Amino acid sequence: MPSSISLHSVSAIAYGFRYRAPLKHTCLFYAHQFQLQPQKFPNLPLFSSSLYRVPNHSFFTGNSLFSRMEHFWSGSSLNRNKGMIEQLQRYGVIKSQKVTEIMQTVDRGLFVPEGTPAYVDSPMSIGYNATISAPHMHAMCLELLEDRLQPGMHTLDVGSGTGYLTACFALMVGPQGRVVGVEHIPELVAWSIKNVEKSAAAPLLKEGSFSLHVGDGRKGWPEHAPYDAIHVGAAAADVPQDLIDQLKPGGRMVIPVGTYFQDLKVIDKNLDGSIRVRTETSVRYVPLTSREAQIKGM
Fold first, then answer.
1. Which residues lie closer than 8 Å to 252 by C-beta, 6 or more apart?
2. What are the φ and ψ backbone dihedral angles of 107, each rounded to 5 degrees?
3. How many CA atoms lie within 13 A of 295 on its CB side?
4. What is the average per-residue pLDDT within 24-33?
5. Euclidean distance between the first and final Cα of the chain, in Å?
6. pLDDT above 70: residue 54
7. Contact (Cβ atoms closer than 8 angstroms) between residue 106 and residue 199
8. Which of 219, 216, 256, 258 is CA-nearest to residue 237?
9. Cβ distance 178 to 209 under 8 Å?
10. Rounded to an integer, what distance in angstroms lies between the CA atom of residue 288 and that of residue 183?
11. What is the model's pTM?
12. How far are the Cα atoms of 49, 180, 254, 262, 278 from residue 281, in angstroms, in the given order?
């Protein structure tokens, strides 16, 4: 990532990075400070988790476009959830009607710590040095995996955290499918189960086509492999071989790869077992590591 960006170049401003967790000791600048109009720059992401480095600390602000707009959303949590999704659609993050329907059905407010701004497009801490991704990252991953989240398919979510995206996956594949979430923090698994039980995905959890487990996600979950779709919610230094082995021929994995500099990789397994890899975007996620290292913040 560059250490600075020219403030006079729209192309430089639009050169954004998508974040799951905030960078430390970094001066950040929000694109909306330029007062850019979305109709003039339809492809420019104006979200609090699309951050730009600048050399001048005076530009830093904690108020994002979404943070400010949330005050105008009123009514029930479902209305606020709907407002969040409409913003993601407005800026071209969500294009799929199916993804729209799923994100409208699963209220994000049920899956964040009490008292936190659930509908702001920003990652947030969920404890144990873990985060829940910004809504635009959830939307992106759902769209990247949509073709492998058809009814009846099998899905693995590594680092399932609060259970939000895992619940979305479960509704996508339906009762004939199978969704497994793996998280190595037992307290997060217990909390995620309670979250899901309050959501539209509760019947699938009760019926058994959807399950959440304590385990080392780097090893996958062989019991229900192979998987049509694998999502990894933390950055791996290298793609775990166990996950590649558990990916079905014709399946797809979305995984952030790297240490400080990270890319969101889309890994497709061809029918002959060969692998194709492409980079979707630059990202910043918490590391995919052991439970002990995560607790220590390493």
1. 144, 145, 147, 148, 228, 229, 230, 266, 267, 268, 269
2. -75, 115
3. 9
4. 28
5. 21
6. no
7. yes
8. 258
9. yes
10. 11
11. 0.78
12. 14, 26, 11, 9, 9
**Tokens found for residue 218:** 């780097």
Rounded distance between C-alpha atoms, residue 107 and residue 172, angstroms: 15
Distance CA(82)–CA(117), nearest Å, equals 14
Residue 290 known to be catalytic: no
CA contacts within 13 A on the Cβ side of 180: 22
Q: Which two tokens stand for residue 113?
A: 């710590």
Buried b (16+ CB within 10 A) or exposed e, 43-64: ebbbbbbbbbebeeeeeeeeeb
Confidence band for 298, pLDDT divided at 50, 70 and 90 = low
**Cβ proximity of 34 and 13 under 8 Å:** yes
Starting at the edge strand that comes first in sequence, how are the strands of the sheet with 154-158 ordered? 28-30, 50-53, 17-19, 275-284, 262-269, 247-258, 227-232, 154-158, 178-183, 210-214
Q: What is the largest CA-CA distance in the chain?
A: 56
Spatial separation of the C-alpha atoms in residues 196 and 108, rounded to whole Å: 11
Amino acid, single-letter form, for residue 271: L
Instruction: Say if residue 113 is preceded by a cis peptide, omega within 30 of 0.
Output: no
Residues 84 and 135: beta-carbon distance below 8 Å:
yes
What is residue 142's three-state secondary structure? helix
Name the catalytic one among 133, 160, 199, 209: 133
pLDDT digits (tens, 9 = 90+) for 141-170: 999 999 999 999 999 999 999 999 999 999
Structure-block tokens of residue 206:
């009760």
- Contact yes or no for 128/294 (Cβ under 8 A): yes
CA-based radius of gyration for the chain: 18
Q: For the chain, how many residues are written?
A: 298
Q: Can you tell me the distance from the alpha carbon of 285 to that of 279, in angstroms, rounded to the nearest whole number?
A: 15
Residue 297 tokens, joined: 């913040």
